[in-house]
Amino acid sequence: MTLHGRLLPQLRRLPVVTRLVLAVALTMSLVLTGAASFVYWRVRTALDQQLDDDLTTYQHSLDKAVRNGAQLPPGPSGSLRQVLDAHGRVLASSHAIRHQTLLTPADRDSVAHGATVRRDVGSLLPITPGTLRLRAHRVTADGHQRIVIAAVRRGHRDEALRELLAQLAIASGLTLIAASYVGYRTARGALRPVERYRSGAATLADGTQNLRLDVPPDRDDEITRLGHTLNHMLDRLEASAERERRFVADASHELRTPLMLMRAELDVSLHRPRSAGELTETLRSVDAEVQRLIDLSNALLGLEELGSTGHITRAPTSLANLLDAAVTPHRRTAERAGRDLDVDTTRVTVDIDARWLRPAVSNLVDNALRHGQGTVRLTATVHEGVLTVCVTDEGPGFSPDFLPRAFDRFARAEASRTSDGSGLGLAFVHAVATAHGGTVHADNAGNGAAVSLRLPC
After folding, report:
1. Fewer beta carbons below 10 Å: N end or C end of the chain?
2. What fold, for 312-456?
3. What is the pTM of this model?
């Protein structure tokens, strides 16, 4: 396995803050190394240029003196000079080096063949005493070949470069430490809300209710947007849990009554022998309660489906056909009660979800027939993209204390839960209106009740 393959899994196991600090430190190290290298290169180039200029000037003066047979001139402070014959014997030399030759045999051979040799003696690091930069080439004087060597000391240049390296190392180290500290503080500060959100989520997992994350209202960055998203998720989770709790509570509460009635009917039937007519009546009573349970279950499931998803599928639908399908099942009931059922609408096409709107209208008609009196009128109009469906009757209307809770689940005008109906009809209508982005309103109009449903279409 390669080094990269071994290090990557280990890095991934580190905390995010540590990884961020390491990334900042590595990046800053590369940047500082590049910057320090550039500065060092520029300074060294300038120092070398100055040193080479001094060496070239001194070399020219030595060459001129050797050609003219004049005395060798003094050079810059600390400079050295040496003149050799073609065989490498020292003809003239600075007092500091006397008869010590500055060139190697290979360098002398190169110069003797016309090459110019330029090289450094000694190293920058580790520190070497007596460092030089020399230049040597061949000069002809009085018909003889001479090797002229000019050398200048590099002590000041090397000392300046060593000091520069030390200063760059100190500055780079301090900058790296400062950048790492700032990166650490920045990463901790940026991730502190995330840790707070994690702690809040852990509290929620422990069963805390109504928990919301503390999101600063005056910010709009990635972390605050994450907080808003998590709060929105918590809202949906709480609403879902509340719907589930209400569903279970409502179902258990409402299913208890018909089940107890059926149990009572069966207990009475089994308590003593019954005639065929009495058993038939008992079975009819049980059948009515079973149908009530089925209607109640369907209503609860419909409400839960609408409340949990809020999803509807709009499609072009004939309004007249939809209302006819909603009203037809109730016409026989109206005839048996000697009541009229009028429908007033126009043949237009509306963009709604017929799967949910049809049973909602049917519930309104059923409530009017069940609890109202006289003629039941169903009117539907479309104006400026809004469908208005209104159902009225000629009964006593809604009681004043019932109107504020008319669309609550299991709300009934009668106090007894044994009364006809489940108390879910208007709640279902309200859920359908909400899913369509519309409204529903209940009121007393004239001499009866009126329920109006308004939906964008």
Report:
1. N
2. Heat Shock Protein 90 (3.30.565)
3. 0.53
